[in-house]
């Protein structure tokens, strides 16, 4: 075997080990065990109304109320350091832009420092509302069912303000988002 072939085989082996290690780590995260909520924290179950939630707009800092009746909503928790979150944002944006004025409202909630989220979001042309919340054991993602502490995490809310279902992980495309949100989309 010549030197070039040895380098190719060596690089292939290193890549395979790295890919295997990354796959193992992702598998641990996706299948992370659910953790009990902190004492006194009430977790909303499917069919129950969302607890009151007011978060600051990512760009303007203005408070936005998200609980209660109104349009159906898809709340998506993300962070700029989260690769699957970054990959998923275009699918959420395409879905959001496909919705009629009374359709599903997509709301992105950055679970990180506002300055970091703002800097990342400035590079994107997202057509949906972006909010920010400090991450922690009592953040709204945990109250709405994120018992694994994973991102991205999505919450589907009906027009009456009741939790319909949750989703761990990234959506691949707008069609997958639409299929997942189908229980709250209007047929008229």
From TrEMBL:
This is Thioredoxin domain-containing protein. Gene3D superfamilies: Glutaredoxin. CDD domains: TlpA_like_family. GO terms for cellular component: cell envelope. It comes from the Bacteria. GO terms for biological process: cytochrome complex assembly. Keywords: Cytochrome c-type biogenesis, Redox-active center. Residues 44-186 form the Thioredoxin domain. GO terms for molecular function: disulfide oxidoreductase activity. The lineage of its organism: Bacteria, Pseudomonadati, Pseudomonadota, Gammaproteobacteria, Lysobacterales.
